């Protein structure tokens, strides 16, 4: 999977929550490479979502899936990271504003044998990453303010992707993945890919659609063009 040029990460925030397991199965069958799992605490963001018990159930049903846990919680603690690691996370990202010792938290995630990422709000400067490259596997660039699905992408965040890509090439020979989250759809995915992103979170433009296979085809065609 990691060799694929682009990865699609369907976000369960836009799934039918009353049939979450079946929706995840549908998304995987449609070709979602990663399942994006948004954790919100009504404090860091004005919304409340899923805890580790949901993830544990999903992991049980989908032992091979890649679960990408995006923590929008404050504070980020070892206990929260461990709870999601134990429940079956594959990747974990968090926001630096919610954690005093970001380097240590990233190292903690990596010690658990997971991919560690830092999530940047639209107003968070990329310079935040400057001394963290050695400890980072991916950067989650928010292209909307976190909290809800279905928002419109903020164009200045795509310029930030370009800047982070330049930094990542210089500092890590491009090893660090750039993932983009918020307002991604078939109409803008090509432009975001050109800016340097490799992983695309898609909520309303994928999970929110009835025909996930058709939605996936739309992304693939746009990325091929
Ligand atoms: C927003 C979440 C996103 C959300 C994206 O705070 O982090 O992952 O699911 O949804 P769309 O793709 O609809 O913007
Ligand atoms: Zn997210």
Description:
This protein is an alpha/beta fold and 225 residues long. It is built from 8 helices and 8 strands; from the N terminus they run βαβαβαβαββαβαβαα. It has helices spanning 20-29, 52-61, 78-87, 102-111, 155-172, 189-195, 203-207, 212-224; strands at residues 7-11, 34-40, 67-72, 91-94, 115-120, 138-142, 177-181, 199-202. An 8-stranded parallel β-barrel has the order 1-2-3-4-5-6-7-8, surrounded by 4 helices. Helix 2 (52-61) packs parallel to helix 3 (78-87) and helix 5 runs parallel beside helix 6 (189-195). The radius of gyration is 16 Å and the shape is globular. The model has no long low-confidence stretch (mean pLDDT 97).
Per the principal axes of the C-alpha atoms, what is the gross shape?
globular
- Ions, cofactors and other bound molecules: D-xylitol-5-phosphate, zinc ion
The assigned structural class equals: alpha/beta
Largest sheet: 8 strands, parallel, barrel
Mean pLDDT across the residues is 97
Number of strands: 8
What percent strand?
15-25%
**Continuous helix count:** 8
Main sheet: which strands, in order across?
1-2-3-4-5-6-7-8
- How far from one another are the termini? 21 Å
The succession of helices and strands, N to C, reads EHEHEHEHEEHEHEHH
Low-pLDDT windows of residues:
none
Write down the Rg: 16 Å
**Share of residues in helices:** 25-40%
């Amino acid at each position: 999977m990691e060799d694929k040029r682009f990865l699609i990460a369907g976000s369960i925030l836009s799934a039918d929550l009353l049939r979450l397991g079946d929706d995840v199965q549908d998304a995987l069958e449609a070709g979602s490479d990663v399942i994006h799992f948004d954790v919100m605490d009504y404090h860091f963001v004005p919304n409340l979502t899923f805890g580790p018990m949901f993830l544990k159930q999903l992991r049980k049903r989908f032992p091979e899936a890649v679960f990408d846990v995006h923590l929008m919680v404050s504070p980020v603690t070892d206990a929260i990271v461990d709870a999601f690691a134990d429940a079956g996370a594959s990747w974990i990202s968090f926001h630096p504003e919610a954690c005093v010792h970001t380097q240590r938290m990233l190292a903690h995630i990596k010690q658990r044998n997971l991919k560690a990422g830092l999530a940047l709000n639209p107003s968070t400067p990329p310079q935040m990453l400057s001394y963290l490259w050695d400890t980072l596997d991916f950067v989650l660039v928010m292209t909307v303010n976190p909290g809800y699905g279905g928002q419109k992408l903020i164009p200045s965040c795509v310029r930030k992707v370009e800047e982070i890509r330049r930094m990542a090439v210089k500092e890590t020979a491009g090893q660090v993945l750039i993932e983009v989250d918020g307002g991604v759809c078939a109409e803008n995915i090509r432009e975001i890919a050109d800016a340097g992103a490799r992983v695309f979170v898609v909520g309303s433009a994928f999970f929110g659609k009835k025909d996930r296979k058709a939605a996936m085809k739309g992304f693939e065609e746009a990325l091929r063009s």
